Amino acid sequence: MIDYRNLRIALLGAGSVGSQVARLLLEHGDELAARVGAGLELVGVAVRDVDAKRDVDIPRELLTTDALTLIQSADIVIELMGGIEPAKEYILAAINSGADVVTGNKALLATHGPELFAAADQVGAQLYYEAAAGGAIPIIRPLRDSLAGDRVKRVMGIVNGTTNFILDRMDVQGDSFENALAVATELGYAEADPTADVEGYDAAQKAAILASLAFHTAVPVEAVHREGMTTVTAAQVEAAEKAGFVVKLLAICERLTDPATGVEGVVARVHPALISRRHPLAAVHDAKNAVFVQAEAAGDLMFYGAGAGGTETASAVLGDLVSAARRHVAGGPGVGESVHANLPVFDIGSVTTRYQLTLVVTDKPGVLAQIAGLFSEHGVSVEALQQTVASAAAGRSGDQPLTATLVIITHEATEAALAATVAAVSAHDAVVRVESVLRVEGDTP
Ligand code: HSE
Prior knowledge:
36% of the residues lie in helices and 27% in strands. The chain is α/β, with parallel strands linked by helices. The chain has three domains: 4-136 and 311-330, 3-Layer(aba) Sandwich (Rossmann fold); 148-306, Dihydrodipicolinate Reductase, domain 2; 351-441, 2-Layer Sandwich (Alpha-Beta Plaits), CATH 3.30.70.260. L-homoserine binds at residues 160-162, 197, 202, 307-308.
């Protein structure tokens, strides 16, 4: 029998992830101890209500409502309460008492990450957060460690399972947004209030975390451009499919050179976008997540898996716990968060990408040439154009003129040039309406 020193583990929160962490730690404690070279003793679980019903039976004697006293007695504190306060206070208390911290709290890291990392640095403590983005998917450690010798150019992820479930259902079943959301709610993917998911707030927090790591630069969540996906229509999804694309809510973090100033910086953005059906991210169905990373030397990499779920996310938490415990056993200082590059964080105006515009126009001589002229006047080059003319029977009633639908895909253009083009096109007499404007992302493999 190996005589292990026991490391004392405190767990804050016993919700869907926390209760699974407690279960797995109690069930697999011996195996984890063998991997670490020290026992991992769960010394307490701080909860709001010790009598609340939980998914997992946690021994009554471990439950406490006194988180601060529990924290003082721990070598490693696992924070899975979520929210900003009191989670932030507890994490700072843990760091200041010399404990390492494992957290899955994306909202807290995306808003107060630099403060927490600075506090940890000051005392040589370590903050682990694999569960904060992408659930079970290993993406934090690959960005922080495996790719530490490379230069990441771009991170493009499907990092919200609820919205991927909805968009996938709209694509595969032809469902409306409302119906797909109702199914997501029924299956427990979407919360009663789905705002954080469908408006892209959850994905924006994850984008801030991924961008900060990938580019060694603090990217606050306020700097992430965010557009939700509630405006995506069944017609857009169907048209995308016909054109060889799929609509996904993407979190994109990229290193770029600002076209106006020539300065290098980073941009992080979350919005619905078209990607080729042949792109690896197009194959991410249901509520799954995936992160596609492009690095200078490594080339293209993709990390895929469950982005949520109690047991799945607990896997990421326990991986962090093992890392933290190994560091305790081996000793030595923690690795500080690397923000050495300190690149400027640009807004969406610096982005250059391709666009798909769908316009309904009156079908009469010269219209196509005039619309094409507006693109050219604003320096936006057309890559492909498809015109569908409404048949006389279907498209005309009474005195209404015949209309045509133009689907225009542009070459790369700046957001500013595209916005000016859309404004000019909307104001043109022959344009009945601008049906949709979507960004087109990812190289077509
Ligand atoms: N609500 C998130 C999602 C999971 O749907 O992916 C937690 O980040």
